[in-house]
Amino acid sequence: MTATLADDTILVSHFRSQSEEVGQPIRPKGGGDIGDRMILAPQEINPNYTPEDVRTLVADIANELNVVVIVPSNKRATFWKDFASQTLDKDNIRDGVERLKEGHVGLTVLINKYDGIDLPRTACELLVIDGLPEVYGLNERIEMQLLDGTKRQLVQQIQRIEQGMGRGVRSSDDHCVVLLLGGRLTQRLHQPESEQFFSSATRAQIELGKSVASQVRGKSLEELRPILDLCLKQNDAWINAGRNAVVNAPPILGGNLDNNQVKLREAFDAARIGRYDIAINKAQEAVNNTLEDKVKGYLKQQLAEYTNFIDPAKAQELQLSALSHNQRLLKPIAGVTYSKLSAPSAGQAVAATSFMERFLEGNDLVIWVNGLIDDLDWGEEGSKRFEAAMKDLGSFLGFGSERPEEKVGRGPDNLWALGGLTYLVIECKSGAVLSPKISKSDTNQLNGSIIWFKEKYDDTCSMTPIMVHPKTIFEYTAPPDPNIRIINKRCLKKLLNAVRAYSVALATSKSFVEKNAVEKQLIQHKLTSSFIVNEYTVTEGSS
Question: Domain ATP-dependent helicase C-terminal, which positions (predicted)?
Answer without folding.
Answer: 66-187
